[in-house]
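re: the backbone from monday

yeah here it is again, tokenized this time
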């Protein structure tokens, strides 16, 4: 058995007049994440972790923001494409672990729905999807509620 790991990180700016999407679900908040796509930092971090594990670059290479077809795109669709690529190389996902860093909103009530949604997108069990959320203790741009960031780590087998 061959094992791989991959790491992903993303940060997006919070802005008014955008819906907030995190982990493939919409979260009620008065701001949303700016981006060419729906701005879902968590799904972007997971996508990059998966691509990194198979040495396939990053989502900017596969889904360039210069391409109008990705404007406002649901990041779950991008992640599904990445899963197809990973599976096509003969890899299966063991588990995914993640950290979301957001000063606001409080994400505790949304962790379970996010976990379920990501498990469904990745077609793995919910107990193989770790979701952690923390504030930035008021520090820096995340602490000032100007941005939300996410980290992801994946393990694959072939
Ligand atoms: Mg992004």
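seq for it, each position gets an aa:
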């Amino acid at each position: 058995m061959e094992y791989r790991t991959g790491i992903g990180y993303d940060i997006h700016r919070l802005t008014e007049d955008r819906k907030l999407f995190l982990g493939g679900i919409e979260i009620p908040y008065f701001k949303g994440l700016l981006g060419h796509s729906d701005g879902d930092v968590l799904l972007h971090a997971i996508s990059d972790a998966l691509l990194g594990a198979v040495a396939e670059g990053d989502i900017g290479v596969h889904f360039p923001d210069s391409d109008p077809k990705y404007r406002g795109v649901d990041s779950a669709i991008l992640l599904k494409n990445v899963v197809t690529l990973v599976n096509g190389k003969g890899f299966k996902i063991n588990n995914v672990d993640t950290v979301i860093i957001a000063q606001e909103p409080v994400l505790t009530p949304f962790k379970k729905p996010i976990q379920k949604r990501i498990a469904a997108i990745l077609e793995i069990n919910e107990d193989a999807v770790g979701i952690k959320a923390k504030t930035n203790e008021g520090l820096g741009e995340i602490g000032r509620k100007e941005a939300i960031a996410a980290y992801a780590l994946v393990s694959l087998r072939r």
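The first helix runs from residue 41 to 53. The beta strands are 3-16, 20-22, 25-27, 31-33, 92-101, 129-134, 147-157.
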